[in-house]
Amino acid sequence: MICLLLIILGVAGGAYAGYHYVTGAIGPVDENDDEIVHVTIPIGSTSTGIGRILEENGVISDSSIFRYYVRFKNETGFQAGDYELTKSMNLDQIIDELKEGTIYQEYQLSFTIPEGRWLEDVITRIASETNLEEEELTEKVNDEEYLTELISRFEMLEDVILDEEIRWPLEGYMFPSRYDFVEEEIEVEQMIESMLRRTATVLTDNGAGSSDYSYHEILTIASIIEGEARNDEERLRISGVIENRLRIGMPLQMDPTVAYAHGEHFSRTLIEHTEFASPYNTYHINGLPIGPINNPGEASIRAALNPEDHKYLYFYHAPSGNVYFSETLDEHNRAVQQYR
User: What is the pTM of this model?
Assistant: First the structure.
């Protein structure tokens, strides 16, 4: 009874401390301090980035609480701009201010990179939409000195991207999204690092830092999911298949890795294609390929971090568009025969 009482008191004390901390973080940093603090929110800032800026300027006490509070209240519509805030404002007042601000100016350059594209296709897209040339983009993303500098600045980047067998060092890290710039002309480093920052934010927001996989492995898994799945439900289930195969040491044998190994898109993967020796070809190697095989979107990254719990080891995409999952090879072969 004494032990039980101590446990109850400990849990109650922890809950009270947590509640007190959260309510304190939601409230003003200093309700008696009305001194104006000038805060600048850049264009393209996420809730994570905004929270970090507010904490650095001392108008909130915890950027993580800000991010979770914004998500809990489903707040959106924050505007880039200059703000006059005070430490006496609570989170609700700060959020209201951030939603009523004025954008600096209209974007002079806007374009979208679709999910799942190979890096060479991303480069072509950027060159067609901006003042940048394919040649300078290609040279920069392969510049070892520049890549080494990026590794020192971005936690998600690891030395593995410099492996000579990696086809494109930044494959998987160039986040597919809409990009807006206030300038008509941009620098090549500005473009690359904008995309890397988006990827870093998505990984952080989805808890990649606490995964058993490295950032490189997470993006590799996500890229396979992006190449295989047609909707969010499939993403989670296919992620579960990948997890199950990795756990028992079974070759992944995913067709998109074969296409990437060849550097050629196939309408249908043939047996002769799968015999190609490459560190990307999951019919040729066990485990994950040496790196990502495309640039995955947030839904695939989230699926890679949250695989569905099931016993499926196989799946088949039928010509009808339906996908059939199986636990055994016999079930899989019957599905292929039935629905081909």
Answer: 0.72
